[in-house]
C-alpha cells in the first residue's frame, strides 16, 4: 500500500470504459489513485497517464502489475484480452476488478475459475454493476427479508433508445440480456437452468438483420420463471425495469421513481425517516464540490451574503410569528463582492 | 497543499454534524483528508482524531489553522462559535465550509460580511446543502432554462416525523424554514422582502408549547409568492417537497420519485437516454465498494463463478435464439471456493 | 309521478349548462325524463324540446311547474334568475336541483333560506358537483373515518388552461374559488370565518386587467387553515388538486390517479379487492352501450365471432397447459357476416 | 318497443350475475327496464321479479321471449344453457347481450355462429366487458391512432386476491386468461395462432391441486407476442394491468391511475383540458343522486344553507381581494332546518 493506505490501481485498457474508470478513481473514489494505465496503443496510454499525477503508462499488463506502487488491477480491456490479464494478476496475487464479461465464453471462464482455485483464495470482482444500483439493492433486500414470501416470477424490461451500428442478435444476449441473467442469479440466489428466446415480428425501426425486440424466458433451479423483454431500438430512452412476483406481494423498480410494492391491499413505497436518509447524498455532493473548488483555488456555492440574508429573513420570520402579522425584511444593499 | 494535492481539512466541532463530516471526508470524498479536528472538549477531539490516520486534535480553532498540513477549514461547531472561527480563518486566508447558520443573527452575519469584504475576496461556502440535492438541482436547471416561463409561486412542504425535545416556535423558523428561505432565494434568484406566519389549531400530537404545524408566506422582490407548510410532528416521516408554478407550467419535486412537470397538456418526467445517466452512481458505488473491500483485504461482490455462470447462460441463450427452442444450461458443479 | 315512477323534470334555462342537463337526463340518468324546458328565448326552448320525446317548451318557469307531468325542477338559468325560480318552485312544493350559485349574493340567498324555512322542509339541492366526484368522495370518507386524525390544513390547486374573455378578479372568487369554499366546508364540516387574498406579480400570459394567479387563504371555525392557488391561465390544462394535512398523515387527490396517502412511514394507495370494484363501471357502460345500440336498431361490441374465437383459443390454452407445449389454435375461416 | 322507446329486457338467469344485471338495468341504465326474468328455479325468479315494477317471472327462456313487452334478451344463465337460449332468441330475431362465455366450447360456439349466419344479420353482443373499461378504451384509441407505431408485444398481469373453492388449472384459462385472449384480439385486431403455458414452482399459498401462478404466451397472426401472468392467489388484491410495447413507445394501464406512456424521451400522461372532461362523471352522479333521492321523497346533498354560506364567503373573498387584507365572514346563526 502507498502512504496513508491509498490504493494504487493499474487500469488495463484506456478505451471508453477504461478512461471513465480512470476519471472515476481520480475524481470520485475515496482512498484510491490510478498508479498505472495499460494499453496496447502506447500513445493513448501515455495521453491518459499525462492527465493523472504520479501515473505511469505501460503497454503490457504484466509490466504494470510489477510496479511497486500498484496494489490492485482494474481490467477494462476488450473481453478477449481478459483471460491473460487475469492470469497475470493471479501470478502476483493482486486483487482485480474485471469489467464484464469475465471472458468471452464459458470454456475460457472455466480456465480462469480453475486458476483462481489453484490460487486458493478469491481475488476477482466482476463488473456486474447493477448489483450496486440503489433500486436493485432495495429490491434484493426486500426479497431477502422474506416479507413478501418466496419469489415466483421476475418480469424484466430492458430498453435502449437505439442500438449501435453492427449490433447483432447474439449481442442482444451477450451484451444486453447478460445483465438480467446476472441479476436473476443474484436477486434469487438461484442458478439458471434453461433459456428460451421468442421473437415477435421485428420493429420497422430495427436495423436490417437485427430481430428487435425479443423476449427471453429463463428457468431457474429454484423453480422461478423469469422473462426479459429486450428492445434495443425502442426509441424513447434507456429503461431498465424489474418486477418480482412473490407469494405475498410484488415489488417493482425502474419506473423512474422509488421501488413500489403491492402487498396487503396497498400499493406504494416507503417514506424516508430522517434528513440523513433524504439528504445524505446532498451532503456528500456539497463537501465534494467544496473540496474540488478549493483545490482549484475557487469559491463556489452559497456564500456569506446568503448566510447573512438567511439570518435577516429568519429574524423577520420569528418577529412575524411572535407578533402575528406580515413583517418586512431589512437587508443592507448587496456589496460589490457578492454581486 | 499536501502531497499529490490532497486537501488537508481542519474540522471545527466534533459533535454529530462534525463527526459525520470527518467520516465523510475520510471515506467518501475524493481528494481531501482530515488533517485536524478541533473541539472545546479535548477528550472528544482526541477520540475522533485517533480514528483518522495523520489527524491531530486541537481545542483552539486558531491553533489548528496554524498547522502546516491544514489547507482548509470546515466549521461544524455550534452557531454562536462560528463568528470567531470565521474571523480566525480570514486571518490565515483559508477557504471555509461553514455549516448553517453562518452566525446566529443578522448583526453578527453582517460583521462577517464586512470582514470578508476587507479580505477582498470570497473565502466562505455556507452549508445550505439542499442546493446540492439532485432533485433541487434539476428543478433549478429547469427554472433557469426558461422553458416554463417566469416562476410565479413556490409551494413547499417541510415535514419531520417528530421534533426533538425542547424544539420551540422560533426554531421552526431558524432551524427548519431557514432551508426554504435559502431555497427560495437560490431557486428564484430573488431576495425575500416580507414574511407572514399563519397557524391552524395545533395538532394534538404536537408537544406542549409548540404550535405545530405552521404556514409561512414569503414575498420576494421579484413579485413571487412562496408558501411553506412546516410540520415537525407529522408522524409519518421526513418529507421535503417543492412545486414551482410558472407562467407555462409547473414542476414538482420531493414525492419520492423524479421531478414531475405539468406542461403542454401532459404530466410526467424525463426518461434517461443512456446507461451512463441511469447507472452512473452504480458504477461509482461498485468501484468504491471494490476499493474499500480491497483496502480491508477482502473480496466481495460478484466473482469468477458469477462470470463463468453468465458466460454459460449466454451460450445457452444464443443457442436458444439460433435454434428457436428451449435450451438447457450446462454448469459444472460449484467449486468449494465459491460456495 | 308519471307511469312506472319515472321523474318528470322541468329544466329551467337551456344554455350550455341547461342543454347538457337535458342530454344527461335523457341519455344517462335512470328513472327520470325531461318533461319541460324553459327559456326566455322561446325559439331556443322549442328547439331543445323538439329533440326530446314528450317534452314541452315554456318561456315562464311558473308555467312549466304547473304542468301535470312535471315532478321536479332543475334550475340552470343565469344566477340572477334563480331566486324567482326557486320561490316559484316553493309555491308548488317541488323538489329542486339548483345550479350554483344558489343566488348571486348573500342577501338574496338569505331570502331563499327564509322562504324554504317558511315552507317547513328542505326542497333544494345546490349544484356543488365536486361533492359527487369519486376522488373527493374518497377523501371525505378517509377524513370522516378519523384514521388520519383531525385535519389541520388543506392545500388546494385550481388551474384552468385559460380564462374565457371578460373574466374578472371577482369571478376568480365567485366562479372558481367558490368550489374550494364549498369543498372546505363539506370536507371539514366547518364554517369559513375569514378570507385573505394574496397576489404574486401576474403571469405575462394573463389577460390585461386580470391579476392571475392569486393565492387565497381561508380560516375556519374549527381552526383549520386552507390555502387555494387559483390560476386560470396556467396553459397546460384543467387541474384540481387537494391535499388534507392531518394529525397522523396526509391524503392527496387530483394528480390524475387515485388518492395517495402519507401515513405510518409509507406513501401509496389502496388496491381494489375484487373485479366488481375494478370493473363496475365497465359493466355499466357495457350494458348502456348495448341498450343504446339496440334502441337504434344496431349491433355493436364483441359478437359471436369473438365468442367463438375465445372458445377456440381457450381450448388450445388448456391443451397447451395439460401437454406442456406450444399448441396451435384452429379457427375456421372468418365468415362474411363478421368481416 | 314500449312507450317512450324504453327497451323491455328479459334477463335469463337470476344468479349473482343475472341479479346484478337486473339491478343495473333498473337503477343505473337509461332507456331500459327489466320486463321479464327467467330462472329454472321458479321461486328465485318470482322473488327477483317481485322487486321490479312491471316485471314477470318465467322458467322458460322461450316463454319470456314471446311476451309482448320483451324487446331484447340478456343471457346470464350458466354457460351450458347459453346455446339453447341464443337459438330461441334467433327464432324471434331478438337482440341479445350474452354473458361470457358465448358457449362452453368451440364446437357449440360454431353452431351458434352458423345459426346467426342463417339469420342473416348479427344480433348478439358478447359480455367481454373489458372492452368498455375506460383505461382499455384509452389504450385501444392510442394504439389505433398509430402514434406509437405498430404494437409488437403486450405484457399482461391478471391477479386475484384469492381463488374461489374448486378453482382448477383449466379454469385459470377458461375463466381468467380468456379475458386477456379477448383483449389481445380486440386491442391488436389480430387472431391468436398459438398458445404456450409455462409454470414456475407454485406458490405455497395456492390451494392443493392448483398450479398458481402460471405464465401464458400467445402468438398472433400479426406477429405480435403476448404474455400473461395469471396469479389468482396473489393475496394483495385484484389487479389487471396491460402494457403495449410498440415501435415508437409503450403504454401501460392498470396501475391504479391513468394510462402512462413512454415516448420521445418522456414518461407520463395527459392532463384533462376542461372541467367537462375532469368532472363529467361527477355531474352524472350528482343528477342521478338527486333523481334517486327525489323519487324516494328525500332531499340529500348540499342545500340552501350551503348556497347561502358560499355566497357569504364569496362576498368576503371579493372584499379581501379588493381591499388587500384579511376579511372576516359574516354568517347568520344556522337555522334549525339546516342543522
Automatic annotation (TrEMBL), chains A, B, C, D:
It comes from the Bacteria. It holds the Pfam family GFO_IDH_MocA_C. It catalyses: myo-inositol + NAD(+) = scyllo-inosose + NADH + H(+). Its EC number is 1.1.1.18. InterPro entries: Gfo-Idh-MocA_inositol_DH, Gfo/Idh/MocA-like_OxRdtase_C, Gfo/Idh/MocA-like_OxRdtase_N, MI/DCI_dehydrogenase, NAD(P)-bd_dom_sf. Keywords: NAD, Oxidoreductase. Residues 8-128 form the Gfo/Idh/MocA-like oxidoreductase N-terminal domain. Residues 140-328 form the Gfo/Idh/MocA-like oxidoreductase C-terminal domain. Homotetramer. Belongs to the Gfo/Idh/MocA family. Involved in the oxidation of myo-inositol (MI) to 2-keto-myo-inositol (2KMI or 2-inosose). This is Inositol 2-dehydrogenase. It comes from Streptomyces lannensis.
Amino acid at each position: 500500500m502507498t502512504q496513508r493506505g491509498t490504493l494504487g490501481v493499474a487500469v488495463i485498457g484506456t478505451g471508453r470504459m477504461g478512461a471513465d474508470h480512470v476519471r472515476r478513481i481520480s475524481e470520485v473514489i475515496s482512498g484510491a489513485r490510478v498508479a498505472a494505465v495499460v494499453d496496447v496503443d502506447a500513445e493513448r496510454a501515455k495521453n491518459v497517464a499525462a492527465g493523472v499525477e504520479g501515473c505511469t503508462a505501460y503497454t503490457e499488463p504484466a509490466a504494470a502489475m510489477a510496479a511497486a506502487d500498484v496494489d490492485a488491477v482494474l481490467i477494462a480491456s476488450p473481453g478477449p484480452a481478459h483471460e491473460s490479464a487475469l492470469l497475470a494478476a493471479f501470478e502476483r496475487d493482486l486483487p482485480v476488478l474485471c469489467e464484464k464479461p469475465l471472458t468471452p465464453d464459458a470454456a475460457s471462464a472455466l480456465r480462469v475459475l480453475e486458476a483462481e482455485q489453484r490460487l486458493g483464495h478469491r481475488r476477482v470482482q466482476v463488473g456486474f454493476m447493477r448489483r450496486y444500483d440503489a433500486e436493485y439493492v432495495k429490491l434484493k433486500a426486500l426479497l431477502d427479508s422474506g416479507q413478501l414470501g418466496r419469489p415466483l416470477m421476475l418480469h424484466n424490461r430492458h430498453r435502449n433508445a437505439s442500438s449501435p451500428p453492427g449490433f447483432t442478435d447474439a449481442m442482444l444476449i451477450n451484451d444486453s440480456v447478460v445483465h438480467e441473467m446476472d441479476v436473476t442469479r443474484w436477486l434469487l440466489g438461484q442458478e439458471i437452468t434453461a433459456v428460451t428466446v421468442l421473437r415477435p415480428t421485428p420493429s420497422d425501426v430495427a436495423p436490417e438483420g437485427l430481430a428487435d425486440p425479443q423476449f427471453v424466458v429463463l428457468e431457474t433451479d429454484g423453480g422461478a420463471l423469469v422473462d426479459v423483454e429486450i428492445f434495443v431500438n425502442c426509441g424513447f430512452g434507456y429503461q431498465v425495469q424489474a418486477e418480482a412476483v412473490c407469494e405475498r406481494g410484488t415489488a417493482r423498480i425502474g419506473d423512474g421513481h422509488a421501488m413500489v410494492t403491492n402487498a396487503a391491499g396497498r400499493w406504494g413505497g416507503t417514506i424516508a425517516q430522517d434528513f440523513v436518509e433524504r439528504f445524505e447524498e446532498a451532503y456528500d455532493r456539497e463537501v465534494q464540490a467544496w473540496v474540488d473548488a478549493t483545490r482549484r483555488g475557487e469559491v463556489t456555492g452559497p456564500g456569506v451574503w446568503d448566510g447573512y440574508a438567511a439570518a435577516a429573513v429568519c429574524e423577520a420570520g420569528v418577529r412575524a410569528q411572535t407578533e402575528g402579522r406580515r413583517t418586512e425584511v431589512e437587508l443592507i444593499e448587496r456589496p460589490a463582492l457578492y454581486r
